[in-house]
Amino acid sequence: MTLLWPNGSTTIPHVSSEFNLTRKHPITGVVKPHRGIDLTGWSTIVAPVSGVVTVNAYQAGGAGHWVEVRADNGDRFRFFHLAAASPLHVGQRVTSGTAIGQMGASGSATGVHLHYETWPAGKTAINPREYYANNQENDMPLNNQDLISILTAKFTLTQNGKSREVSVQEMLSAIVFYGDVLNAKIDRLATAPVDTAELARKIVVELVKETA
Asked: 113 to each of 12, 71, 96, 102, 134, how far by Cα in Å?
């Protein structure tokens, strides 16, 4: 599953202030850890992953209107300085891309921006750049819609001049049904290093041979 940035893109938005644990606060001038990055350049903030809203609160002189979403794997994402209270409620289930609120400047802020924090499960906040580098594609939990999309995805396999449309779900069913036969074939196919896509293609070829 793709991990989104709060603008709904897989590409990081404009960063106006970086993660810095020894940053001097721009308003107070006091050194205070900046445990996130400040993002600008769009309006609607969305959930980067599927999960549950764990905080929807207001902190005067600080985060302002802010929301926390806990992913299914326990990781937490925090969104500060929203323009107004989020319409979401604590305990509400959200999916990747769900609107959280509008970018604003509530609380202690010098201008409109999103202060964005990433907290791995059971740990303190880390630089979102590092978090995203460590959590790409398949590392994030799948929601039901993602799983349905994957299982029903189809592609055309052509062999010996004959074409057949095969879905991932059909592949999995065939693997279970012909497990003993395919285990031997997969072991044989995987004896030499191959990339994942090529190995998958070869396995499907074997599936078609066994189920034809």
From this structure: 14, 23, 21, 10, 25
Q: What are phi and psi of 166, to 5 degrees?
A: -125, 135
pLDDT digits (tens, 9 = 90+) for 12-32: 999 999 999 877 777 677 777
Q: What pLDDT is stored for residue 33 in this prediction?
A: 87
Q: Which domain holds residue 161?
A: 153-211
Tokens standing for 173?
A: 């069913």
User: Are 104 and 200 members of one domain?
Assistant: no
> CA angle, corner 44, sides to 77 and 47, nearest 5?
30
83 and 131 part of one domain: yes
Same domain, 137 and 160: no
- State if pTM tops 0.70: no
Q: Are strands 14-17 and 93-94 parallel, antiparallel or unpaired?
A: unpaired
- Given phi > 0 = left and psi -120 to 50 = alpha, else beta, which region is 196? alpha
Pairwise CA distance, residues 47 & 6, whole Å: 6
Q: Which amino acid is at 46?
A: V
Q: Of 212, 135, 139, 131, give the one whose Cα is nearest residue 170.
A: 212
Reported as a single tens digit per residue, the pLDDT across 106-145 is 998 989 999 999 999 989 999 999 999 998 754 455 556 6
CATH code at 109? 2.70.70.10
Final residue in a domain of this structure, among 120, 141, 162: 141
| Number of domains forming the structure of the chain | 2
Shared-domain flag, residues 70 and 99? yes
